[in-house]
Amino acid sequence: MNEFVVALGWFGLYAPVALGAIGSAWGCALGGSAAIGAMLDSDGGYGRFIGVSLMPSSQVIYGIVIMFSLQQTTVDAANGAAMFGIGVLSGFTMLFTGIRQGEVLASAIHASKAKPEIFGISLAPAAVLEGFSVFALVFALVLAGTMPS
Amino acid sequence: MSNPHQYIALITSLPHLGKLFSRKEVPISQYRLRQRMAMLEPGHARRLKEMVEVTAWAGVAHMENDFEVIQRAREVIHDLAEYPDLQHLVTGRMETRTLIAALRRRRNGQDAAGAIEAWGYGRWCSMIKANWADPAFGLGHFMPWVADAHRLIRAEDHIGMERLVLTEVFRQLDHYSIAHEFDFEAVGIYVLRWIIVERWSRYNADQARNRLKALVAEALSPSGTAAVVQSVSAELFTDTSTSLEGVLP
């Protein structure tokens, strides 16, 4: 049983990085596709399209921070379950917010191409999703501090 | 094209078409649009071509008769089984054409719908047949544009009629576009919209060309001006419809 909990602990330790990386890759691909398409139809402003399309890359960074906060000198039965719970759930949050952020960024790029004056405000939904990722990060750090070492 | 990323790139590479009648020219040329459509996978490109063929006037013009158009529309709708909204769009377009065809037939003196199955398509055939004498074929309570079309066709206001029909078709496209942002349906809806905008812009170009012709004729022969102007206006909006003519070029 202990070995199983230890295995879960390692799984939870790496989950925020792995799931965060998948979310970031997926989100950046969605936003990047929109940016590339928009560049075909625009005479300028390429930098801002590419710039916003990279916004979902923050999820993997948050995942790395969570992994380091969960890291202990040893993974054992006492801390394995906590690592699993915090790591997997925060990882799934990063995965989901990364993908959804990519989708709303694609919509924002598409809409602001037709109406450039809404470029700033169209990023608001993506910023809100970023906020949710930050919530998950902050409370994962808080809980990691209370874990038995 | 089979993954959502490529659809996103394709859709965002297409310029915004804007509101109907708000532009004097299309924001993307036919050549450029064809180039962009090369990003579609062969199966989708074929379906799109078929859909345009059966909805655009240029596509149905070479067909022998109305029944052939209807048969072709049935095949295309069956082929779009994976895309129910596109099926509804093509069906809606055929029904709109049927209503316009009925209005024109009635304007031309036909006193009954006759064998409507041979020239009409869709849900309203029995209503049209049963309410032939009604200005809106009994559909006015939920399709008020039919009564307006009846009035315009009686008044021989061809421009007004064209505007009304294009507005109705654009409204149908708007309705189905709400649920599709980055997928094959969105591409299809964009192309159908483009065809309408292009058609309207071409009318303006034709109008300008004919006006120039009239002015040149006036300059060369002042006495013949009236005749030239008459022939110009006749060319512009000649009503050479078969029963299913109507909505797209």
Automatic annotation (TrEMBL), chain A:
GO terms for cellular component: proton-transporting two-sector ATPase complex, proton-transporting domain. Its main location: membrane. It is a multi-pass membrane protein. InterPro entries: ATPase_proteolipid_c-like_dom, F/V-ATP_Csub_sf. The chain crosses the membrane at residues 12-37, 49-71, 77-97, 118-144. Signal peptide: none annotated. Keywords: Membrane, Transmembrane, Transmembrane helix. Residues 11-68, 84-143 form the V-ATPase proteolipid subunit C-like domain. Gene3D superfamilies: lithium bound rotor ring of v- atpase. Pfam families: ATP-synt_C (PF00137). The keyword Lyase does not apply. NCBIfam families: PRK09621.1. This is ATP synthase subunit C.
